[in-house]
Design brief:
Helix content is 9%, strand content 37%. The protein is mainly beta. Strand 11 and strand 12 form a beta hairpin.
């Protein structure tokens, strides 16, 4: 994970996108009423420089949102998301969530191993939780080579109607306040797609079956029992195929003072070669490593430089189905990554895909 973070962090350029909506005159009147309600709950007033990145609210609790989808306040919720694209491919998913009372915009990032919160807006408090940053406690932004630089804090996350007071085993065991989040500047500000308050990882989503409905731009969360079984029936999303998720261990890079944690991967056959593809919804393009490229070169149509260009791959077999002309970026030199990975570009081809981290399964639905 740290390798992916290092690559992604170094490649991102500052920029800020602001989003607008076109509304009818009726909608404008409704917005005028809604805007009279504070976006933030009554907390310590933020400094004038602090403005949390906000998008629309999640679907409310206990309501029918579609055939076979009934949101239940403590078992099922549906959260709409924004998808940001580049060159016609989805690259980022942003959605609204609430952390300890702060309602803001977050990125879905299954390639990181913790919940990361932006130190630009928040600061640790004496009890191990978080407060709004004050001018006296701002920490200068700087390039951080190790994602573990920063403060370990405890946070409660609300996703739609579901409250996740979750445990992070790696952080909780080394922190007196049972920390489950990291507060730092690794993803501060904008990455060219817009600002957000943090990156939500699989640690937050572990109590739920997490379904990405790409056609409808919805995240559906279904609470699980300790063995990974649904606690509610959601007939609209009936699994028809499950693929094992592999948890990949740590890799240390002494030369960069970075620890990488590639958390989850799936197996696929790339032009006859069995391969493990790491999953990272926060990564930009799908990518092939320099070690893999020569093995499958006969089925690659390469555009540009074979060392840093892009290509289309034929005969990629995943979950019993063959995909052709699958776009990949090429990492044609030894960057130390030595892995291939997939993100939103390939996952979105699957239509509706889910993750059950308790049973270690990637799920496809009818």
């Amino acid at each position: 994970m740290g390798l992916l973070i290092l690559r992604r962090f170094c490649s991102r350029r500052p920029g800020l996108q602001r989003y607008g909506r076109i509304a009818s005159w009726t909608s404008l009147l409704m917005i005028a009423v809604v805007c009279s309600v504070p976006l933030l709950p009554p907390r310590e007033a933020p400094s004038p420089a602090v403005s949390l990145p906000v998008i629309q609210s999640a679907v409310g609790a206990d309501q029918q949102v579609g055939p076979g989808i009934l949101t239940l306040s403590n078992l099922v919720t549906v959260v709409p998301y924004e998808v940001q694209t580049e060159r016609g491919e989805p690259r980022r998913i942003y959605f609204p969530a609430e952390v300890d009372g702060w309602h803001a915009r977050f990125e879905l990032d299954l390639g990181v191993d913790h919940l990361y919160l932006d130190r630009t807006y928040l600061q640790p408090n004496p009890t191990g939780g978080i407060d709004t940053v004050t001018a006296a406690n701002k920490v200068p932004e700087k390039v951080q080579r190790n994602v573990y630089d920063g403060d370990t804090v405890h946070a409660t996350v609300r996703l739609g109607s579901l409250v996740a007071d979750f445990v992070d085993p790696l952080l909780g065991t080394r922190h007196s306040h049972h920390g489950n989040a990291v507060l730092n500047h690794v993803w501060s500000g904008s990455d060219g797609f817009g600002s957000r308050l943090g990156n939500i990882s699989f640690t937050v989503l572990e109590p739920y079956e997490t379904i990405l409905d790409f056609p409808h731009h919805h995240i559906i969360l279904i609470r699980l029992d300790p063995t990974g079984h649904r606690l509610a029936v959601v007939s609209a999303y009936t699994p028809y195929r499950v693929i094992p998720l592999f948890k990949v261990g740590r890799i240390d890079l002494p030369s960069t003072d970075t620890t990488a944690v590639f958390e989850w991967g799936v197996q696929a056959i790339l032009s006859g070669v069995l391969d493990t593809l790491l999953i990272d919804t926060g990564n930009e393009p799908d990518e092939l490593d320099y070690i893999t490229i020569p093995k499958i070169a006969a089925h690659l149509t390469i555009h540009g430089d074979s060392r840093q260009g892009h290509a289309a791959l034929d005969h990629l077999v995943f979950a019993g189905r063959t995909y052709n002309a699958v776009p990949f970026e090429l990492e044609g030199k030894d960057s130390g990554l030595m892995q291939d990975w997939i993100g939103l570009p390939f996952l979105s081809r699957l239509g509706v895909v889910g993750f059950n981290f308790r049973t270690r399964q990637l799920i496809l639905y009818r």
